[in-house]
Write a structure and sequence with these properties.
Layout lengths: L6 E2 L2 E2 L4 H17 L8 E5 L4 H14 L2 E6 L12 H15 L4 E5 L5 H15 L2 E6 L5 E3 L6 E3 L9 E7 L4 E7 L6 H9 L2 H12 L3 E11 L14 H19 L6 E6 L14 H14 L6 H13 L12 E2 L7 H13 L5 H4 L2 H11 L24
Parallel strand pairs: 3-4, 3-6, 4-5, 6-11, 11-12, 12-13
Antiparallel strand pairs: 1-2, 7-8, 9-10
Helix pairs in contact: 1-2, 1-3, 2-3, 2-9, 5-7, 6-7, 8-10, 8-12
The structure holds 1,4-dihydronicotinamide adenine dinucleotide and sodium ion.
């Protein structure tokens, strides 16, 4: 098949296997180039196939020779359709991991369900015995509650007032105003149910009950704060309430892990183009400007650079550096005063006409297409692709 990007709004319905593999190999190369990391050897990554999750899996495996189990929800290829990008990413990751002699197995299904937790538990018992790190990197618009069966949908809405600001259609480059209606009854609860900490806690409870967590066990989940200008739709909006809940859950989990001296952390990460973040209004325009400013200042990072820094300069130090609220901050460069001042200045004057010159729309687009394996210089997109129907370690 010759595969081309087919986009619908902020999603791309096709993915390119060799391109996705290229993205994974680039990340592996980066980690290897930075040298060995002293971090846990038996790692479970939940949300392991794209974005920060695959970056975490790669960092553990290729930085620290860790055995990894990855859980995700991806589509295999089917008649006339490509697989989803996380499927190809994982196939490429496992191929490289196995070639390097590393243990890597995967479970594809709904991580919110009891069934997938049980499958994961069985696999850990069979192969690894215990786990010493769980990375929780799920991002989903929906969750079916495993006890009640209620299906929750998350939303990205401001709370209280209509929020009006600039946004960009990153395909056309058109900058325009968008008004987002405030949340209605149930939106906050629904969003907290999907993206809050309940499922993270359920995973840790389930693993601990089976005695699958080692002494000094650690778990980390990813959060975001961001600048003033996105506050109404992000941190002070419905998704922000879910992040508040996730962050509070870290303390709750740490309490439950006292007997094994375990600890749960939140890492506040930088804004990056992923399938999840491109769905949030206003944020893509902010990111186009942020990328420009961070690149101009030589402090731009992608998911892999972020996680490499999380592992080597934060999470596995004897004294883990945190902010006043106990959170690890790897959004420090994004939030630097000079960077934010410059972005705010550009924000005031950005228009359709000048975005290409004052912002990094091209960089944004490029990363968006990279998510699906497109726009890699190394790949000849006029060539037929190999069908990737298997993930070697898929259970
Ligand atoms: P992503 O969309 O790239 O990754 C989501 C992962 O979750 C994928 O592996 C997907 O297969 C998996 N997944 C989704 N639903 C699932 C389900 N029901 N069962 C099993 N797996 C499922 O997202 P991204 O951006 O890497 O987000 C990960 C975390 O990082 C989220 O908590 C997000 O809020 C946070 N974060 C993201 C930032 C960004 O700018 N992208 C910034 C800071 C934090
Ligand atoms: Na992820």
């Amino acid at each position: 098949m010759i595969i081309e990007p087919r986009t619908r709004g902020f999603i791309c319905t096709t993915a390119h296997p060799e391109g996705c593999e290229q993205g994974v190999l680039n990340q592996i190369e980066y980690i290897k180039s930075k040298g060995k990391i002293d971090s846990p050897k038996k790692v479970l990554v939940i949300g392991a196939s794209t974005g920060f999750g695959i970056a975490s899996r790669i960092t553990s495996a290729f930085g620290s020779d860790a055995s990894t189990i990855g859980v995700f929800f991806e589509k295999p290829p089917s008649e006339g359709r490509t697989a989803s990008s996380g499927w190809y990413n994982t196939a490429a990751f496992e191929k490289a991991a196995h070639k390097a002699g590393l243990y890597a197995k995967s479970i594809n299904g709904d991580a919110f369900s009891n069934e997938i937790k049980e499958q994961t538990i069985a696999l850990i018992k069979k192969d690894l015995g215990q786990i010493d790190l769980v990375v929780y990197s799920l991002a989903s618009p929906v969750r079916t509650h495993p006890v009640t069966g209620v299906k929750y949908k998350s939303s990205l809405k401001p709370i209280g007032d209509v929020y009006t600001n600039k946004t960009v259609d990153f395909h056309t480059g058109e900058v325009k105003e968008i008004s987002i209606d405030p949340s209605v009854e149930g939106d906050i609860e629904n969003t907290v149910a999907v993206m809050g900490g309940e499922d993270w806690e359920m995973w840790i409870d389930a693993l601990k009950k089976e005695n699958l967590l080692s002494d000094d066990f650690k778990t980390v989940a990813y959060s975001y704060i961001g600048p003033k200008l996105t506050e109404p739709v992000y941190r002070n909006g419905t998704i922000g309430r879910a992040k508040d809940h996730l962050e509070a859950t870290a303390f709750k989990i740490t309490d439950k892990l006292k007997d094994i001296s375990g600890k749960a952390y939140i890492s506040v990460n930088k804004a990056l183009v992923t399938q999840s973040s491109s769905a949030i209004p206003v944020i893509p325009l902010y990111m186009s400007l942020l990328y420009r400013v961070m690149k101009d200042n030589n402090v731009h990072e992608g998911c892999i650079e972020q996680i490499q820094r999380l592992y080597t300069e934060r999470l596995f130090l004897d004294e883990v550096p945190t902010d006043n609220e106990g959170r690890i901050r790897i959004d420090d460069l994004e939030m630097r005063a000079d960077i934010q001042e410059k972005v705010a200045e550009l924000w005031e004057k950005v228009t359709t006409e000048n975005l290409m010159s004052i912002g990094d729309l091209q960089g944004y687009r490029n990363e968006f297409f990279h998510l699906f394996g497109f726009n890699y210089d190394e790949i000849d997109y006029t060539k037929e692709t190999e069908e990737v129907v298997d993930i070697a370690g898929l259970q």
